[in-house]
Design a protein that fits this description.
cell membrane, mainly alpha, membrane, Multidrug effflux MFS transporter, 436 residues, Growth Hormone, Chain: A, xenobiotic transmembrane transporter activity
Length: 436
């Protein structure tokens, strides 16, 4: 994303001086569309299996399709918006999101559900990636951090509420009501965005390099192991959470016989744990570095996931399993903000591309790993725990391999203010004096 010149420059767009509640609420709702799209229908998995005459593994692939859409959408829409602005891609994506949601209401096959879930993920990505871009367009300095912190709180809270809301729809009727609700939510966002959001990226600030420049930036990031290794680490760690998300409804509702409402409570406890971990991580930053947090938390996650696997193999009861799952998920709350903090600090001159690739890796690796529990078969609880332990262990090995490269990689301080991509003109970059 192109870095604007200093605010005093004639070509710089006007900056917001006050954070309004309405503006933040709208951006929060746009951010929430991703987590809601992922999590709202989880408690309905058993009902969908029966209704569409399919299998658990095929239903889990619909979640994989959603995650794949979210991964690809962040790369495509984020890059496109840097070239043509935010408003048109956002309104177009929301319109397609509504159509996909309505289509799901009437699906009669698992194949069509999978295709439409991919479209839902692809278009929901616009709300997540463009809300962040709009913040960067409208604010600067500490205000950017304040607004994004509020949006991240929504990302933490939405997964807590989504399965609970979904369980209520199941009490009212069919699982298809959930997608009626998502369609209505999409229409509401479309109307509000059309009426309240103005274009935040003027033509003078847009990227001129087109697709070639975006691909060049992504290519250089993939070749940089200090970045790409971190992106893989974050992706594999998030895959543990997505593995749990895809398998949890079968573990708790089918193996342990819990109701949809009871399942929603347990799922919410895990989401609360992730949120608490994220908030504690934020409080620690400044006292310790994100690298130090990763060096402690990833091994802790390995130990906890190993204990979870041992508990499932030994036939431990539900309370023990829930406690270990909640604690393991809590470590993800530390990893999620720490990985981008380290990666973006070293890539300020291409932070737009770096942020999009980090997000894509999170959902992309998750999309590849999440269906394994259904494909492997056997005891779903043991399989889920084994996959979670496996991917967190891979994250630990990646962290070990990154130790030397992270120490050698210089912190990028070439850009002042908001981040830029590789194609930023030289006169838009401002050197930052070394501290001290």
């Amino acid at each position: 994303m192109v870095t604007p010149p200093p605010a005093s420059s004639p070509s710089a767009p006007p900056r917001a001086t006050r954070i309004t509640v309405g503006f933040v609420l709208l951006l929060s709702a746009l951010t929430a569309i991703g987590p809601l799209t992922i999590d709202l229908y989880l408690s309905a998995f058993p009902q969908i299996v029966t209704d569409l005459g399919t299998t658990e593994s095929r239903i889990q692939l619909t979640l994989t399709a959603t995650l794949a859409g979210l991964a690809l959408g962040q790369l495509l829409i984020g890059s496109l918006s840097d070239a043509i602005g935010r408003r048109l891609p956002l309104l177009t994506a929301l319109s397609l999101y509504v159509l996909a949601s309505v289509g799901i209401v009437f699906v009669q096959s698992i194949e069509m559900l999978t295709v439409l879930r991919f479209v839902q993920g692809l278009t929901a990505a616009a709300g997540m990636v463009l809300s962040m871009a709009i913040v960067r367009d409208n604010f600067e300095g500490f205000q950017v951090g304040k607004v994004i912190a509020r949006l991240m709180l929504v990302v933490g809270v939405a997964p807590i509420l989504a399965p609970t809301i979904g369980a209520q729809f199941l009490r009212m009727g069919s699982w298809r009501l959930m997608f009626v609700a998502l369609a209505v939510f999409g229409v509401l966002l479309l109307v509000l965005a059309a009426l309240r959001l103005k274009e935040s990226l003027p033509p003078s600030m847009r990227r001129t390099g087109g697709t070639v420049a975006a691909l060049r930036s992504y290519g250089s990031l993939v070749r940089d192991w200090s970045f790409f290794g971190l992106a893989l680490l974050g992706g594999f760690y998030m895959a543990a959470m997505f593995t749990y998300i895809s398998a949890s409804t079968f573990v708790f509702q089918e193996q342990f016989g819990l109701s949809a409402q009871q399942y929603a409570i347990i799922f919410g406890a895990g989401a609360v744990s992730v949120t608490i971990g994220s908030q504690v991580n934020g409080a620690l930053v400044g006292r310790v570095t994100p690298e130090q947090i990763l060096r402690v938390i990833v091994p802790v996650g390995m130990v906890l996931s190993a204990a979870l696997l041992a508990a499932t193999l030994s036939g431990a009861g539900l309370p023990v399993l829930v406690a270990l799952i909640v604690l393991t998920l809590g470590t993800a709350g530390f990893v999620m903000p720490s990985v981008p903090a380290v990666a973006l600090e070293r890539n300020a001159h291409r932070a737009g591309s770096a942020a999009a690739l980090l997000g894509a890796m999170q959902f992309g690796v998750g999309a590849g790993i999440a269906p394994l529990t259904g494909l492997i078969g056997g005891d779903v609880t043991i399989t889920m725990a084994a996959v979670m332990f496996g991917v967190i262990s891979v994250a630990g090995l990646l962290l070990l391999s990154l130790t030397r490269s992270l120490r050698a990689a210089p912190v990028d301080t070439t850009v002042h203010g908001l981040p830029a991509t590789d194609d930023v003109p030289a006169d838009a970059k401002v050197a930052v004096p070394a501290s001290g």
